[in-house]
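Researcher: Please generate the 3D structure of the following complex. Treat every line as part of one assembly.
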Amino acid sequence: MNPYVYLHEIVRTVPGREEPYLASVLSLQHDPTRGERRQHPVFAQFRSIQTSGTWPYGINIWENTWASQTQNLVGQFLDTRRDVSMEDWWNRNLHLRRGGYDRILIPAPYSPTAEELQSRKVTVEVFVQDVLWLPFGEPRRFLDEVEQRLVPILERYGLDLIGAFRVAMRPRQALTIIGARQWSDLAAMLSAPSTPDSELQRWRDYHDGTVEHAEEMVLLPARHGPLTARRPVV
Amino acid sequence: MNDCVYIHESIPIEGGARGRLIELLRSRWGPHLERDHGVRLVGAWATVGSTAEWPEVQVHWETDDWEQFARAQAGQYPMEERDIYLAEIWNQALEFRQHGHSMLLRAAPFSPDLAALTAQNVIGDVILHEDVRSRPGRMGDYHDALRSEYLPLAEARGLRLLGAYEHALIPNVGLNLWSLQGWDHWQALMETEPDDTELSQWTERQGEWLVDIDGFLVAVPPAAALRT
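Model: Done. Output below.
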């Protein structure tokens, strides 16, 4: 059972400034003036590439509880918890990003936590993120199907489920993230032939017959993000 | 019956000017439109970035009825000829915003007007904003169900209806606004949502009338809202 919720931020970065923006976000974790506000580590960070989906974007995902998520918002809108250092950072980084679109994600029970990914030593070369629009009432069933049908297929191809979520206050949406340790692993699954009775084909039939709209992004791990497979030499 | 006419604006913000635009709306724009044109500012809110688009401001205006709406519009536009103060602040605000999207709305019959909201002290600092798209021709049925089925559920959970609207020009587009009791209330609603069977049943049932509904939070920044 995953007890957390996740703040998912799709950030419209200034073109060419994706990595500086993402590193700047992480720098907040090291700001000594922020005191007890530094405790929430980033769950994942990605950047867009020109392979599939809209670009340029940077993506931050934060692992929170409802209480810590709420306190973050209180810090923005109530003087009692005002976060001056965050405001200062926000205003100093206008040259790196232009805006964004956020969601709060509610994980499926089996969706891994940051600690679980770390303990399994999951590192990723490329991610596929899908934002899905499903019929009313379907997102929970869809996430059950992901666990029962898709996860075994991913394991067969050496891929990792990074997350499977509903979206708070948006009852038709779900979001999934798959990680490949190598591009060739992703290509192997995408190129696999489907025989009519195969598990892969049954998943594709269910997926294609259920999803009404999808926005996909092929993403790289951010250079300093926790899941990157290519740590820079420093 | 609520005969008022509403304009709802979603305004993307340039850089770090969200608070300054809201301050301008509160201190000068709103009082001017009310005094000179009878247009009332229901709310000027910051979109809560963790839940939707950012940086963005949402503005909600009310006029008495279609006659008043027509007088107010004719009195304002073209503003360079008819309202030079409005033209001045509109141009000043280009520093804060370059474009936006406005919706012309009529209220559902059970939707309260600003006078009723004020009398009952309903408007709080945290608002749930819901963009609604109905199946073709089903907005009226949705509003009937919203009033008879969902409103009691919502009020039992502490939400108060600020407004339920349909677009006056575009079919099957609507907007709901709900007042929450504060951040702790929102946290409690989110924590109990997974096990709330009544709400799950309502959510699923909405598919009978709706194509989609997207909810996010908007909030009132502190008084000296010049931060971001």
